[in-house]
Amino acid sequence: MNVEKLQKMAGSVRTGGKGTMRRKKKAVHKTTTTDDKRLQSTLKRIGVNAIPAIEEVNIFKEDVVIQFVNPKVQASIAANTWVVSGTPQTKKLQDILPQIIHQLGPDNLENLKKLAEQFQKQAPGAADAAAAQEDDDDVPELVAGETFEAAAEENHTS
User: Fold this and answer.
1) If you ran DSSP here, which 8-state letter would residue 144 be given?
2) How confident is the model at residue 130 (pLDDT cuts 50, 70, 90)?
3) 109, 117, 144, 147 — which has fewest CB within 10 A?
4) CA 92 distance to own-chain centroid
5) Measured between alpha carbons, how far is 78 from 47 in angstroms, rounded to an integer?
6) Hey, what CATH class is 35-135 in?
7) What share of the chain is helix, strand, coil (3-state, %, to 5)?
8) Which of 115, 44, 113, 39 has its CA nearest to residue 79?
């Protein structure tokens, strides 16, 4: 092996400068499982209970909705603590609005008004086109002095 490379590796494990002793053991990093165990023990101490059969959880933030599908939900009513675990999906409010309209409370009424205003600002040309199309579907107005009966008689005679 290369001597320079070995000396460089040996120098990286020294605790101090040149001439000091080497570390006796390598530093062990904590894994995320210990954090999860600590979290579960804290939740157990609070007294959370699992709530079964929840299909979907939506957390509303401004124009964004954080959506959990089939999450694991735990709650402690006494501690006013809810724990939702699962894979979240961040979506825009207007994308999932038809499915969640029944979930919106009075506090989200203001967000709904803002969203409606944004739609009106974004599509003024689309509203005009829709109005023009509606005008095409209406019955045309009669020319002054003509009636339907007179026009029908003219068609029969010609």
Assistant:
1) T
2) low
3) 144
4) 6
5) 9
6) mainly beta
7) 45, 20, 35
8) 44
Confidence of residue 65 (pLDDT cuts 50, 70, 90): confident
Determine the pLDDT at residue 134. 56
Cβ 111 vs Cβ 63: under 8 Å:
yes
Query: Which DSSP symbol is given to 22?
Result: B
In whole angstroms, what is the distance from residue 24 CA to residue 22 CA? 6
Burial class, 65, CB count within 10 angstroms (exposed 0-12 / middle 13-18 / buried 19+): buried
**Tokens representing residue 149 in the block:** 């009966």
Q: Which two tokens stand for residue 120?
A: 């009106």
Show me where the domains of the chain are located: 35-135
- If you average pLDDT over residues 133-145, what whole number do you get? 63
Which two three-digit tokens encode residue 76? Answer: 């402690």
The alpha-carbon radius of gyration of the chain (Å, integer) is 35
Token duo for residue 26? 């390598």
